[in-house]
Specification:
Blueprint: E1 13-17, H1 27-33, E2 41-48, H2 49-54, H3 58-68, E3 73-75, E4 80-82, H4 92-104, E5 112-117, H5 119-130, E6 137-142, H6 145-149, E7 156-161, E8 164-171, E9 176-180, H7 189-194, H8 196-206, H9 208-216, H10 218-222, H11 228-246, H12 263-272, H13 279-296, H14 302-314, H15 337-346, E10 352-357, E11 360-364, H16 369-383
Parallel strand pairs: 1-9, 2-3, 2-4, 2-5, 5-6, 6-9
Antiparallel strand pairs: 7-8, 10-11
Length: 390
Amino acid sequence: MPVAPIELQWPHRVFFARGLLAPGHRLLRDTLAEGSEGRRVRVLPLLDAGLVAADPTLPARVSAYLAAHGDALTPALAPVILPGGEASKNDWGLVERLWSLFNETALCRHSQVLAIGGGAFLDWTGFAAATAHRGLRFTRMPTTSLSQADGGLGVKNGVNRFGKKNWIGAFTVPWAVLNDFAFLDLLPPAVRREGLVEAVKVALIRDRAFFEFLDTSAEALRDLRHPELENAVERSGLLHLRHISTSGDPFELGSARPLDFGHWAAHKLEQLSGFTLAHGPAVAVGLALDTVYARRIGLLPETAAERILECLQRLGLNLWHDGLDLADAAGNPLFLAGLEEFREHLGGVLTVTLLRDLGQGVEVHTMDPDVVLTARDELRARFAPVPAHA
């Protein structure tokens, strides 16, 4: 049978800046209007409700920005405020609500959906945009350190189904990703620190020099000092972007997902918590678990493993969650099912990224459940909070 290859090139525009909604700042205007050939682009602004609660002036500022650039942009509606957070990805009705909104406003494939919010908000609104008219132009403005450092830069979107994270979704290259550091100032300190876990993750598997920076700057990063925090977020984002654009497998046709180091347990812990455990804290535990596992099987030197665990702690990240102790009626640990779910999500072959050394990831295709449980027990002994009555 003849094979006719289709070769496509997609521009993946990613920017880091501050103050993008200031009326005089043209980056957002020029990005949304790119390729419009002089026509005014209809823009539907979608705002994360949690973000608006932190900054009630945001809807008015977005409207003022669009009005200031009325020569190129026109709002399809006033900013629409919608739920964010991981719980929003469990509500299929939100996707249908957004589809209805796209239809009612007669958006076309030359319109722009501008989503401003955290990673979960970008996930479900991006899925709705990707499946309307076979793909509306979707511009992301991530507003958390986690989404600016990792999740908001990728080519994936999704919603949760059957109790599983991102079971429904699509691969879609966004029109652009514009990261505005000013949004990070709105976050509670603990939430701002969460994005650092993805910086540690990508440094450990890709860039030892970056890990050295994170390690030596851990106290400054824990205290959320500038410019260290912005430096860490941007360097993390660029490393993720480089992998997506140069790995040769941006749409994950293979079974390897090196950027998901520490994620098999993290995704399961999120699910076991009913998605009350946020992604960043879950990944911190997942990184710690896989670090101890790699040390216990003789893959990772003990000195490297201890540096990783100490760095995560110095960044203010917790390395234990009680979900690791949940078991079924027969006493089987529930989090171990995350390995099988990870294998299924990867396409049938288990491929887990572990560490050989700082900055050196390596793929393995089996994990010994007994050693995983021993690693779990070590995390509990070292990092679980001591009961108040003890």
